[in-house]
Amino acid sequence: MNPVELIKLKRNGSALTKDQIKFIIEGYLDGRVTDYQMSAFLMAVYFMNMNEEETFFLTEIMLESGKILDLSHIKKPKVDKHSTGGVGDKTSIILAPLVASCGIAVPMISGRGLGHTGGTLDKLESIPGFNVNFPVDDFKRILEKTGLVMVGQTAELAPADKKIYALRDVTATVECIPLITSSIMSKKLAEGAEALVFDVKIGVGSNLPDKEESIELAKKLISTSRKFGKKAIAVLSDMEQPLGMKIGNWLEIEECIEVMNGKMIPDLFKLNNVLAGAMIYAGGMAKNIEEGEKIALQKLQDKSAYNKFLEIVEIQNGDTGYVKDWADLKRPAFSKTVTASEDGFISEMHASDFGFAAIELGCGRKKVDDEIDYLAGIILHTKVGNEVKKGDVICELFSGSSEKLEVSEKRMKDAVKITGSKPADKPLIIDILE
After folding, report:
1. 73 belongs to the catalytic site
2. Are the C-beta atoms of residues 422 and 371 closer than 8 Å to each other?
3. Which of 80, 89, 161, 199 is catalytic?
4. Residue 146 and residue 308 in contact, taking contact as beta carbons nearer than 8 Å
5. From the candidates 22, 67, 187, 350, which is the catalytic residue?
6. Which terminus, N or C, of the chain has the lesser number of Cβ atoms within 10 Å?
7. Nearest-angstrom CA–CA distance, 357 and 47
8. How would you write the pLDDT of the chain (434 residues) with one tens digit per residue?
9. What distance separates the 2 farthest-apart alpha carbons in the chain?
């Protein structure tokens, strides 16, 4: 087989066989297929799509590029959650320790920032020393000991996705259902979870902004899970505006610690509890999602989630002192406020603009090898529906570079809209599919 011929076939809309897809993926891992050829292949898939069979083959091949964990020795339900990506979407940081504190094992393999959306691994690495790279034996050891492990793809687990994921981030090939499905499922199937909960974002801040495409993705994730014998639930949630009040790696960890210590941030709290309820239900420890939510709420209120979070920080070599000192408000050297230009109501906070502004501040990558500024980010002072007066602070921007601050401020120019009347309320939870 020839990479150029396979790229041409897909570019022209042909369906590829399992052997052809296998050649491309395995060739990329062993060097027979170059970065620029894989970039061309990803773009061809982006424009010409893949059918159900191709998507299944791609998932299977990416899954089999590494080890598939057997966690049968851990005598607990094993459930994980995955978000399709959003701005300020930090629920995993609360959710994983919360659900683990309920007696469910959470083998969480996460990703880095993708496009304008943040990544759980980058957020965790804002904690000094926190290690997200463990070999399989240590992955199992930590999971067995604490009921929770939060790591990235390794050379052993879904290595094809690890390499392709980084390339998609910088080649504008993120918003593609077959690529999203195979990326998510190869990671989740490799980690040994028995049931999966998907947080599928809908709106301008998501990696798949079109509502119908997001619903299609949710259905595809559920059907692919079933083909591999896994129970699955998809929660469709709104991503028109950022989730919570903080955007950025350490800032989002800080906000999660606030919630785990009793602060009420309504949208973050609500989404977290619904996802937790779904995971507890999927793990067979509640008769429905609502009962699971009640169990989760108790564990959040009695600090079980926070204590479990400190436990996983310590066992994954993070600095627990840095975490416990979260109220010290660690901030970079430069900051700037964005204020309301007129009286009225916040009618729009364009989530993707906030996401790209955060990247300009240093929260994400434009190139694969870009360094991240872990303290950079955005703090919101208001949300959609709130009334503001001219001059009121809408948000604060933070960066270690004054130049980046200026660029980010320009990016924010059209991110917020103010109107004379209060906008209609939108539901945070759009639908739940089983």
Report:
1. no
2. no
3. 161
4. yes
5. 187
6. C
7. 27
8. 899 999 999 999 999 999 999 999 999 999 999 999 999 999 999 999 999 999 999 999 999 999 999 999 999 999 999 998 899 999 999 999 999 999 999 999 887 776 677 789 999 999 999 999 999 899 999 999 999 999 987 778 889 998 998 899 789 998 899 999 999 899 889 989 999 999 999 999 887 888 899 999 999 999 999 999 999 999 999 999 999 999 999 999 999 999 999 999 999 999 999 999 999 999 999 999 999 999 999 999 999 999 999 999 999 999 999 999 999 999 999 999 999 999 999 999 999 999 999 999 999 887 767 789 999 999 999 999 999 999 999 999 999 999 999 999 998 988 999 999 999 999 999 999 98
9. 64
Q: List CB contacts of 404: < 8 A, sequence separation 6 or more.
A: 360, 361, 362, 373, 376
Active site residue 411: no
Catalytic residue check, 187: yes
Cα–Cα distances (Å) from 111 to 118, 133, 360, in that order, read 9, 12, 20
Same domain, 39 and 164: no
Rounded to an integer, what distance in angstroms lies between the CA atom of residue 319 and that of residue 101? 21
Please name the residue that has the structure tokens 């309301």.
Answer: 340
Spatial separation of the C-alpha atoms in residues 65 and 112, rounded to whole Å: 20
65 is catalytic: no
Q: pTM for the whole thing?
A: 0.89
The CATH number of whichever domain residue 18 belongs to comes to 1.20.970.10
In this structure, what is the dihedral angle of CA atoms 97, 98, 104, 106, given to the nearest 10 degrees?
-40
Cα–Cα distance for residue pair 374/357, rounded to 1 Å:
15
* Catalytic residue chosen out of the listed positions 76, 78, 140, 168: 168
- 315 shares a domain with 187: yes
Domain that holds residue 14: 3-48
* 224 and 121 fall within a common domain: yes
Whether residue 159 sits in one domain with residue 95:
yes
Sign, CA torsion 150/196/169/411: negative
Residue 404 a catalytic site member: no
Catalytic pick from 10, 76, 82, 411? 82
**Pick the catalytic residue: 183, 186, 225, 408?**
183
